[in-house]
């Protein structure tokens, strides 16, 4: 379960956060950020596909690639060596072993690129996201959507060089989205396997039924858009 930590200086955060969300600014130095951006520019990013749609952000994934037609996770290339130092840093921050971060997704958002409302695919449990380049707004709304009202949407600005964690309710009982970014931004998200945590921690009754996934397409990586408000 999420616990408040030193990483959450109250003055940096909106007054309400979805439970289970952690955020820390200045996780990386500017030099580290610049090095990562240079690396990402050399990676084979490609416009992601979601069923018949092509997403506007460009991505490359490591450790697994979700097939939205077959609704299953396919093997993907292992993490490139150059991203292993970042994975170690993220793992240390998150309190997990580096190799437990089995999935990594590098995403590039050109100016004007949004990411639609979704939950990440149910094969994974915790999600840790490092932001590079420019600020974005992460929005959260309760899930399932029919219970959501406009005033339930919470906005969490994520700065370049920051890191966030989505665990517990923020990961399973809320959807998230990113409205069109103003300037070029990248995120590197790492995920643990869902079954890795089973038996290790209480889930506090949080619903993790996969059945809902087919009704509301929920993407980890390649969603164009689902329901916008
Ligand atoms: O860019 C971000 O920080 C959000 C990424 C995201 O939600 C995802 O890849 O599932
Ligand atoms: Fe996501």
UniProtKB/TrEMBL annotation:
This is Alpha-ketoglutarate-dependent dioxygenase AlkB. Residues 100-194 form the Fe2OG dioxygenase domain. Transmembrane segments: none annotated. PROSITE patterns: FE2OG_OXY. GO terms for molecular function: dioxygenase activity. It comes from the Bacteria. Pfam families: 2OG-FeII_Oxy_2. InterPro entries: AlkB-like, AlkB-like_sf, ALKBH4, Oxoglu/Fe-dep_dioxygenase_dom. SUPFAM superfamilies: Clavaminate synthase-like (SSF51197). The keyword Oxidoreductase applies. Keywords: Dioxygenase, Oxidoreductase. It comes from Ideonella azotifigens. The keyword Oxidoreductase applies.
């Amino acid at each position: 379960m999420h616990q408040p930590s030193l990483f959450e200086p109250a003055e940096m955060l909106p007054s309400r956060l979805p439970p289970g969300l952690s955020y820390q600014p200045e996780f990386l130095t500017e030099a580290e950020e610049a090095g990562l951006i240079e690396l990402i520019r050399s990676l084979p990013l490609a416009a992601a596909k979601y069923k018949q749609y092509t997403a506007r952000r460009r991505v490359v994934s490591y450790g697994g690639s979700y097939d939205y037609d077959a609704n299953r996770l396919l093997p993907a290339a292992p993490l490139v060596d150059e991203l292993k130092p970042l994975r170690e840093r993220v793992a240390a921050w998150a309190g997990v072993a580096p190799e437990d971060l089995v999935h990594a997704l590098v995403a590039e958002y050109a100016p004007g690129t949004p990411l639609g409302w979704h939950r990440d695919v149910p094969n994974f449990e915790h999600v840790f996201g490092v932001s590079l380049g420019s600020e974005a707004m992460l929005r959260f709304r309760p899930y399932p959507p029919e219970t959501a009202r406009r005033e339930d949407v919470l906005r969490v600005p994520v700065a370049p060089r920051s890191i966030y964690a989505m665990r517990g309710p923020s990961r399973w009982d809320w959807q998230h989205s990113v409205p069109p970014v103003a300037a070029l931004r990248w995120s590197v998200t790492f995920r643990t396997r869902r079954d890795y945590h089973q038996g290790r921690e209480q889930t506090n009754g949080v619903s993790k039924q996969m059945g809902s996934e087919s009704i509301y397409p929920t993407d980890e990586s390649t969603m164009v858009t689902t329901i916008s408000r």
